[in-house]
Amino acid sequence: MQTSKFMLKKILVAVDGSDNSKKALTYAVELAEKLDGKITLIHVSSTVAPMIPPADTFSAPTLPPPASTAILTKISEEAKRKGEQILDEGEQVVKERGIGVEKILREGDAVRQIVTLAQEGKFDLIVLGHRGVSRLEELFLGAVSEGVSHKAPCPVLIVK
Predict the structure, then answer these.
(1) CA torsion, ordered 154, 39, 88, 136, to nearest 10 deg
(2) Which of 7, 24, 82, 157 is 20 to 30 A distant from 66 in Cα terms?
């Protein structure tokens, strides 16, 4: 029997709770079953500081006063809690199929965090959904799937 040089044993799956993310996870689980692979789930939470609009139309928005640091902390904690929930749900899906799974929660730029983990962990494949955010958010944040596909150190499977 001839073995392929393209072994897909270590699969990194980016999850954000969207429908396309869930489809990507299902696809990755099926691949892992067929190839006797292991799945690592990553969720990247991103907290954006709220900006105060200017009183006039000529000034740029500014960051809120230091008193709102508590608000930013609360937003960050809520994003982390939501990320952990998404990872737990994904872990349950993978474990139900008897596949090894690991969960990783990171904060920051999703593309950078996913690509960095793929490099550090020497993953064989990255699987992610096509679009997890709205079209308006995509204009401001950039498409994660597109960014990862351009910068990843391994093949990327984008599931629609």
Answers:
(1) 30
(2) 82
